[in-house]
């Protein structure tokens, strides 16, 4: 899971951040002091998490997968949830260390198909160890990179949808495959307004304390791959119990992420800004990401992804926005350029928002005119209206409208979709 409205933001008071990383820092501290660094209390695990449940009613235009036309039901039930196991303890030198494991609260078994010959049954999302203190914060494991954790961009009252790493979308299967205006550095091709190409692949992350409103951070992942069944090394969809990391296996390597943000209050006005950049080299070769016999991937290249954004808040109103570019780790002509804007309002138990996200991609990989992945410029525009009401601590009623407009050269690329959404969001 990446940054969601439910995930607390990293702040000046690092001790308030619920998740992070680094048993590594304990070793460093011991080496510097030359004496044992003891914890006052043993680590005790606590439970947390969320469950989002929705009913959608609307229309998804028919599209095509291969040569098969597909139509869609007008009513669906959708949900997303996680259970978090967290624990920490404070050492005598003032450093807090701990662990966090996120269990998916729904079945992850995708089954076996031609595209996924082993199936996927990964029930764990993120898992990592962390440490923080006056010196900053360190994380080690399967977690989001610094540029994701430090993002200030669009805010949405329609929890779980939004544009800042949505869990849910209302789009057709053929549309997702063919319209590359929404292709970005997410693990599932959703519309996102942040840099997160490395996903939850295993990495190390450092985030500095905030000084005069400024904060910097960085992450490093040895390897990452787009997606496959066994995930032996650096799967972007999550960490893996890595037993090896083959070279020349058509994966990206040495993913380096850097980020900075700024937050300052001037009277009743709060200003928040952020910027992030990720790059990774491509390890072309004769193996698959799983280390099996394969063929060189000549379409891939060095991955480059950058994003910037900000928020201006005043007495309950927050105006936010962002823009970015992601080459998707592919050769020229396949970069996604995106832009986003939102107006968010909060008053007592109420939150409301209106937002827009627009993506553009010249679709340089498409070569067959008239095909469902036809050559030419692909566009996606997503409009959203959301509102939620705090019914009780940890329980929100949530609803709104989501509309996706596609533009392209084929039926699938032009398949629009809209949905009225109503549901509940539980946090615990």
Structural account:
The chain is mainly beta. Helices cover 5% and strands 46% of the residues. The protein is built from 3 helices and 18 strands. A hairpin with a 2-residue loop joins β12 (303-314) and β13. The protein is globular and about 65 Å long.
Question: Can you describe this structure in just a few lines?
Answer:
With 428 residues, this protein is mainly β. It has helices at residues 24-33, 146-149, 173-178; strands at 46-60, 63-65, 68-70, 75-90, 96-104, 124-133, 136-142, 202-207, 214-224, 251-266, 269-283, 303-314, 317-326, 336-347, 350-361, 378-392, 395-407, 417-427.
- The coarse overall form would be globular
* Total strands: 18
Secondary-structure element order, as H and E?
A: HEEEEEEEHHEEEEEEEEEEE
- Cα distance spanning the termini: 16 Å
Content of β-strand: over 45%
Q: What radius of gyration results from the CA coordinates?
A: 22 Å
